[in-house]
Every structure is written in structure tokens, then in C-alpha cells.
Write a structure and sequence with these properties.
420 residues, alpha+beta, BirA Bifunctional Protein, domain 2, Rossmann fold, 2 domains, 5-stranded mixed sheet, 17 strands, elongated, binds adenosine monophosphate
């Protein structure tokens, strides 16, 4: 777990603010859920990968609890209980820290941050399309270039396996092995579970079916799984989702991968991850999970969502040398000269803050030259010098630290002068 200092903390907050503005523009409302949840809730449907890496412990009341490794179970709980009678769809947004006992390495931490968007209540392809487009808006908003959306559909693989009568548990185990690209182990398990030779051949072909010509790949997937009805329906669903995205004019680079599976067990439909060429780990991951809310005692509720890794978006921005575009911010340091001017200097600083100017008051009692040197070092744009002589005429000195100019002006005109 890490400390974030100055620039990094600023960058994390910058990405968070982008996520919030995307949430606002797409109509997602924020909910805040606890960092500590019941172990059972978190373990119910997390894949083995996540389940084994939870920070789990007994609390002082003897209950088994864990630090949340993801947001989705908490959201499913809220949807199944508190929100259950609200009209659908719900567009929900969560932002915060998550905890997994991963092996720390670049882009993989034990404490990390996500912005999570969930669209609950619709099973329509336009809902899946919205989540893809929203994720793209966030990447664009963060200023990232060359993002690639790796897209697949769990329904294709599950469709084949379920028609071969493999039970859910075995299917999940197969998908998990495929997620880790341990294909031979996955196929071995399928074979041992009594699947047909055709099934194995289909799975082997699916793993090979991938590429950036999305519609061609999906077409080939459909042909490949002919006869496995559920898998065909899944391929058609993926086709419809991608068509909506493309025809809306949204430019997303996609690579469809038929053999793509995600570690989390609860996905039921379209799944995706977002990559940039500079990093080999995904910035975001998401997909459709239509069964999860039911598991928490709710009505059958279709849902689709995405979790965006804020730490990894930051890494990608650093790699791509993206400089956060800051809202044009006027920053001022106020330096009182001598004791008798401090109260008046504080009053002026209040006035400037009320005019939405960021003000730092010189609290170190330094001489003017030292205080100015410090302001310069910290890239502050202006200094206001409050001296006795000028105050007697209702004036102060305003220094433009970039242009190295200064004027003496009426206090009443100060805010306007700084802003313009
Ligand atoms: P997941 O919840 O595993 O689907 O992950 C969604 C996103 O969260 C990933 O694409 C990453 O950006 C981020 N993420 C997951 N695990 C970690 C981790 N250990 N460290 C940093 N980011 C992570």
C-alpha cells in the first residue's frame, strides 16, 4: 500500500474528477458503500482469483469480514435491498479504494482505486453499448490515446459448455483457466467432464478467433458455434452491441476475442477490458452480469457495468506524458508586512477566496524576499503585498510573478485585476 504525494495525489484526484464528470453527463448517481463488508457477501460470486486474495479477518464481534476487493457485490446488495422498489433503470456510480492481496508490481497494488459505473435493470444491447461508450468518454477525458477495447462474450463459451451439460462450477473453472491463458488445462478439464470431440474442436477454434475487424470476427464466431444455440444467440448479441456503438459514431478501437474470459465469475454476457500500448495490464474491466442481484435475494435483475482502475489510468497518463488540463486557476500568496497589517491581510484573503481565487496566506512570518522566492518555487502566479503605507490609502501591491511586474491598486479592484 502506498502514499500518494503532491503531484501523484493531484493526478489521482484529477482522474477522479474526470470520472465524476462522466458520471454526471451520463446521469449516474453516486452511492457510497462500506470498505468492510461481510466475508460471505464478498466471497459469494467473486472468482477464485479474487476470493483467495481478500484481506479477511474476524472482527471483535466474531464476524468474518473482509476489506472490499471490488464494488459490485456491495452494489448488488444495495440493489437487492434498499433500492429494490425504485423504478429502473438505476445508473449508479462508486468511487473509492479496494484491497486485494496481489503480488505488488507495476500497476498491481494491494490498495488501489476504482471508479465503478453500473447500469442496472436493462438487458438491452443499448445498455451494454452505453457502458462501452461511457468508458471511452473517461479515457478521452483523461487525455489517453490509442486505447484498445478487448471485447468478448461469456455467453459464447458458456453456451457451448452448457449445451455439453457441464455444470456451472466446471464452466467457471474452465473460464478461469482460459482467463489465465492455460488453454491446455482448460481443454483437459472439458474433456474429463465428458464433453464431445466437436466441443473441444470448437473451443480450440474459438481461442484462435480474434482481431480488430470486429464484425468479421463475430461472424466467424457465429459460424464456428453453429448448432450450439445459446452460443449463437450470444454472438448475435455481441454483434448488436458493437453495431450500436459504431453506428452511433463513437470511435472505439476494438479487438474481438472469442476465447476471452474474465476472472470474476459473475459475468453472463458481453465482457471487455481496456488497454494502452504502453502497459500490459488492463486499465478497466467490465461486462454484463444478469444473475448477481438474484444471488443477494433480489428480483432477477439484468445489469452491466465497468470498473476503471484509477491508479492504472494514472500510470498510462504518465507513460503517454499527458499533462492534466487544470481548470484555469488563479493562485495568490498574501504577504503581510509587519504585525499591524495581518488582520487586514486576512480580511483581503477572505475577499479573494469569496471571489473564487485560491489564496495562500504567508503563515511562516518570513521576510518578503524569502516569501516571494518560495511562491516562485511553487509556481504561484501572484503575490499581494500588504504594507502599512499602501493600506493607509486603501491600497495594496499586486505582483505578477510570471511577468515580474507590479502595480499598486485599490483593494476594491484587486480581485478583478487578478482575474483579468
Ligand atoms: P477487476 O475488478 O479485476 O475487473 O479490475 C478492474 C480494474 O481495476 C482493472 O482493469 C484495473 O485497472 C484495476 N485493478 C484491479 N486489480 C488491481 C490491482 N491489484 N492494482 C491496481 N489496479 C487494479
Amino acid at each position: 500500500m502506498r502514499d500518494f504525494l503532491l503531484e501523484e495525489a493531484k493526478m489521482m484526484k484529477y482522474i477522479e474528477s474526470k470520472a465524476r464528470s462522466v458520471a454526471e453527463f451520463y446521469g449516474y448517481k453516486e452511492i457510497m458503500t462500506p470498505v468492510v463488508e461481510s466475508y460471505d457477501l464478498l466471497a459469494t460470486k467473486a472468482g477464485e482469483e479474487v476470493r483467495l486474495r481478500m484481506f479477511a479477518f474476524k472482527d471483535l464481534g466474531g464476524r468474518m469480514v473482509a476489506l472490499r476487493p471490488e464494488f459490485t457485490p456491495s452494489i448488488a446488495r444495495v440493489v437487492a435491498t434498499t433500492l429494490r422498489n425504485e423504478p429502473k433503470p438505476y445508473r449508479l456510480f462508486c468511487l473509492g479504494s479496494l484491497y486485494r492481496y496481489d503480488e505488488p508490481q507495476r500497476g498491481r497494488y494491494r490498495e488501489f482505486w476504482q471508479s465503478d459505473f453500473e447500469l442496472v435493470g436493462s438487458d438491452k444491447p443499448e445498455a451494454d453499448a452505453e457502458i462501452l461508450m461511457l468508458t471511452n468518454s473517461l479515457m478521452n477525458g483523461a487525455g489517453l490515446k490509442k486505447c484498445l477495447f478487448k471485447v468478448g462474450h461469456v455467453g459464447v463459451l458458456r453456451g457451448v459448455l452448457s449445451e455439453e451439460r457441464l455444470d456451472d462450477k466446471v464452466q467457471s473453472a474452465v473460464l478461469q483457466l482460459m482467463d489465465k491463458k492455460q488453454y491446455e488445462d482448460a481443454f483437459g478439464l472439458v474433456k474429463d467432464s465428458g464433453a464431445s470431440e466437436r466441443c473441444l474442436a470448437v473451443l480450440r477454434s474459438l481461442v484462435e478467433l480474434k482481431g480488430c475487424n470486429a464484425f468479421e470476427v463475430v461472424g466467424n464466431v457465429k459460424k464456428c458455434v453453429e448448432g450450439y444455440e445459446k452460443a449463437v444467440v450470444a454472438a448475435e448479441n455481441l454483434n448488436r452491441i458493437l453495431k450500436l456503438v459504431v453506428e452511433s459514431g463513437c470511435e472505439i478501437d476494438t479487438s474481438v476475442e472469442a476465447g476471452f474470459a474474465r476472472g470474476l465469475e459473475y459475468y453472463t454476457g458481453m465482457i471487455f477490458e481496456v488497454y494502452v500500448p504502453e502497459l500490459d495490464v488492463a486499465l478497466s474491466g467490465g461486462g454484463r452480469y444478469d444473475k448477481l442481484v438474484e444471488l443477494f435475494g433480489g428480483e432477477p435483475t439484468p445489469a452491466v457495468g465497468v470498473a476503471n482502475g484509477i491508479d492504472r489510468i494514472m500510470l498510462a497518463m504518465q507513460e503517454q506524458k499527458v499533462i492534466p488540463k487544470e481548470a484555469e486557476e488563479k493562485r495568490v500568496v498574501i504577504i503581510p508586512i509587519g504585525d499591524g497589517t495581518k488582520a487586514e491581510a486576512l480580511r483581503i484573503s477572505r475577499e479573494l477566496k469569496n471571489a473564487s481565487i485560491v489564496v495562500e496566506f504567508e503563515v511562516m512570518g518570513r521576510k518578503m524576499a524569502k516569501a516571494l522566492e518560495d511562491a516562485d518555487r511553487r509556481n504561484i502566479g501572484y503575490a499581494v503585498i500588504v504594507g502599512k503605507k499602501e493600506l493607509d490609502e486603501g491600497k495594496v501591491v499586486l505582483k505578477d510573478l510570471k511577468k515580474r511586474e507590479q502595480t499598486t491598486l485599490k483593494i476594491a479592484k484587486l480581485a478583478q485585476a487578478i482575474k483579468s
